[in-house]
Amino acid sequence: MTTLPVFITGNQHKADYLAKWLGQPINHRKLDIDEIQSLDLRTVVEHKARQAYAAAGEPVLVEDVALTFTAMGQLPGTFVKWFLEEIGVDGLVRIADGLPHRGAEAAIMYAYFDGQELHVFEGRVTGQVPPRPRGENSFGKGWNAIFIPDGTDKTYAEMTEEECWPFNHRAQAIAKLQAFFADAV
Predict the structure, then answer these.
(1) Can you give the chain as a three-state secondary structure string?
(2) Residue 179: CA atoms inside 13 Å, Cβ hemisphere, count?
(3) Whether residue 1 has pLDDT greater than 80
(4) Portion of the chain with pLDDT greater than 70, in percent
């Protein structure tokens, strides 16, 4: 595998997780970049990657996530971070309580930008929102306690990283990243 670009994140856990599953160290850096308001995950990561490259002056890798309640169209989607900050996971569950079904989709996109070409790596998993948050194992703070991927009866927060891997949207995208950087050698 080739040398990886700098991963733009202020979250050490995200950087450690990515390095673990890519099988090599990854440099990361926190940059103060704008997060545009869009329900389109691709639009968000493309903007973030271009802005990060302009600030860093070197090839970058960025990511963003979305959690969508399918009965709500594209919401909360890319705005899930702000929903969590305002109403927490309990508030998100209360929203799901009022919907005609509890279907959900977890999505992630990584974007690599070298100043010339932009490459996007996506992972998506469907599942359900449980009636209450469950679990303590979590990818940092977030919505892992309220997403049960199809194929299991556990939330992400109830699984170890290894248990979660076959059901994980992040795992899908990381596998695509691995293949891309392996081919880049």
Answers:
(1) CCCCCEEECCCHHHHHHHHHHHCCCCCEECCCCCCCCCCCHHHHHHHHHHHHHHHHCCCEEEEEEEEEEHHHCCCEECCHHHHHHHHHHHHHHHHHHCCCCCEEEEEEEEEEECCCCEEEEEEEEEEECCCCCCCCCCCCCCCHHHCEECCCCCCHHHCCHHHHHHHCHHHHHHHHHHHHHHHCC
(2) 10
(3) no
(4) 96
Length of the chain: 185
Domains of the chain and any CATH numbers: 6-183 (3.90.950.10)
**64 to each of 9, 46, 100, 106, 183, how far by Cα in Å?**
10, 10, 28, 11, 24
Please name the amino acid found at residue 95. Answer: I
Q: Provide the pLDDT confidence category of residue 141 given band limits of 50, 70 and 90.
A: low
Quick one: average pLDDT of 110-116? 97
| Mean pLDDT on 121-146 | 89
At 21, the pLDDT band (50, 70, 90 cuts) reads confident
